[in-house]
Write a structure and sequence with these properties.
Elements (H helix, E strand, L loop, with lengths): L1 E5 L5 E8 L6 E7 L7 E3 L1 H7 L3 E8 L5 E13 L2 E9 L5 E2 L1 H4 L2 E5 L6 E6 L2
Parallel strand pairs: 3-8, 4-7
Antiparallel strand pairs: 1-2, 1-10, 2-3, 2-6, 4-8, 5-6, 6-7, 9-10
């Protein structure tokens, strides 16, 4: 089980340990975005700091319907106590957790300021 919180903007936030391969991980607060089908997005500056290797470019569709090209990188994360290697989209927005990282989990969000976010495995 993982826990997070709801911030003053009514965003569900969780902390994820992110890094490159076996290097030390950095804790990153990320907003849960149910409209984002990828794993994780991070700002370019953080991707550079973490030394995440470039992997490929991918076409994505934003919430307004516009299409953009994202540079994709590889990262190692600790999610629910397990190490996973995932794709990370470079974006200048705040870090986002997408549905691919949440696949196989259920989420409970108490949607009030300082509300609790609970993420548990299904089954």
């Amino acid at each position: 089980m993982m826990q997070g919180r709801v911030n003053q903007n009514c965003e569900a936030i969780i902390s994820i340990a992110v890094g490159h391969a076996n290097n030390p991980k950095t804790m990153v607060d990320a907003v849960i975005d149910t409209g984002f089908t990828g794993f994780l997005s991070l700002p370019n500056s953080l991707i550079t700091t973490l030394g995440l290797p470039w992997y490929f470019r991918d076409l994505g569709t934003l919430g307004d319907g516009s299409e953009v090209v994202f540079d994709m990188h590889k990262a190692s994360v600790i999610f629910d106590g397990q190490i996973k290697v995932i794709d990370v989209a470079a974006s200048e927005a705040d870090p986002l957790v997408g549905m691919s990282l949440l696949y196989g989990f259920k989420i409970r969000i108490d949607v009030v300021e300082r509300g609790i976010v609970i993420i548990e495995t299904l089954g």
